[in-house]
Design a protein that fits this description.
about 90 residues, mainly alpha, 2 domains, Transposase
Amino acid sequence: MQTSSRAFKDSMVMKRLPPNNVGVPPLAAQTGMPRDTLYGWRREALGQARQPASAAVPAGTLGSEAKFAMVMETARLNELELGAYCRGKG
């Protein structure tokens, strides 16, 4: 695995950011660097941590604890009460 100098990484990141906005495919072709490396350097420079896709939870989605609490709360309700509960919670 080849390591690159900090100055080289910074110059590649600067080419990716405004006002230059050079795309990754042309930059990869021009420099011979893998696209994933260039994407990673940009993400690192912007301070964005890489998150697994399964860890990304859309806004407004309930977590597992909240879902379990709802199940426990509604376990004793009949069909009509459960319908009213769901309408009330949205």
